[in-house]
């Protein structure tokens, strides 16, 4: 069944490709069906189920005494927004999206400039750090005074 492809016109070649793809799809479906029937017969003979042989994701029960992650499945508020397309956001977790990488390549653009809320953060950590720094500075100053006396 050798076909000389060099003598076929573009439309004949396209028809040949379409026929071959349809034939390949049918052959794949038949193969899948054959494998399924073989697997079903093996499972029936052994008295097992597919779930017993292959554990599916999410069906695994938590072991007693283990605490499950209570944050799993919760959504995280986005921290960064694309200035060119406001619908694109990023939480700051995981791999950087391509728009973040492209924006950072531009001159003058920093990760802080992409923060939602014009770069103003509303965390309480900054005042705590400043307070701790002030306390450490005061302790060092008192230690120097005692050392002089």
UniProtKB/TrEMBL annotation:
<keyword id="KW-0963">Cytoplasm</keyword>
<feature type="region of interest" description="Disordered">
    <location>
        <begin position="57"/>
        <end position="95"/>
    </location>
</feature>
<dbReference type="InterPro" id="IPR037150">
    <property type="entry name" value="H-NS_C_dom_sf"/>
</dbReference>
<comment type="similarity">
    <text>Belongs to the histone-like protein H-NS family.</text>
</comment>
<dbReference type="InterPro" id="IPR027444">
    <property type="entry name" value="H-NS_C_dom"/>
</dbReference>
<feature type="domain" description="DNA-binding protein H-NS-like C-terminal">
    <location>
        <begin position="70"/>
        <end position="116"/>
    </location>
</feature>
<dbReference type="Pfam" id="PF00816">
    <property type="entry name" value="Histone_HNS"/>
</dbReference>
<keyword id="KW-0238">DNA-binding</keyword>
<protein>
    <submittedName>
        <fullName>H-NS histone family protein</fullName>
    </submittedName>
</protein>
């Amino acid at each position: 069944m050798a076909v000389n492809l060099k003598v076929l016109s573009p439309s004949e070649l396209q028809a040949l490709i379409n026929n071959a793809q349809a034939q390949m799809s049918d052959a794949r479906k038949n193969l899948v069906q054959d494998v399924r029937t073989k697997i079903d017969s093996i499972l029936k003979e052994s008295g097992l189920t597919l779930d017993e042989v292959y554990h599916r994701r999410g069906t695994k029960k938590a072991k007693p005494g283990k605490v499950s992650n209570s944050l799993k499945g919760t959504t995280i508020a986005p921290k960064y927004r694309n200035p060119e397309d406001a619908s694109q956001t990023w939480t700051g977790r995981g791999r950087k999206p391509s728009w973040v990488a492209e924006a950072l390549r531009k001159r003058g653009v920093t990760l802080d400039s992409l923060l939602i809320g014009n770069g103003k953060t509303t965390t309480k950590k900054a005042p705590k750090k400043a307070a701790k720094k002030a306390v450490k500075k005061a302790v060092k100053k008192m230690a120097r005074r005692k050392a002089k006396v």
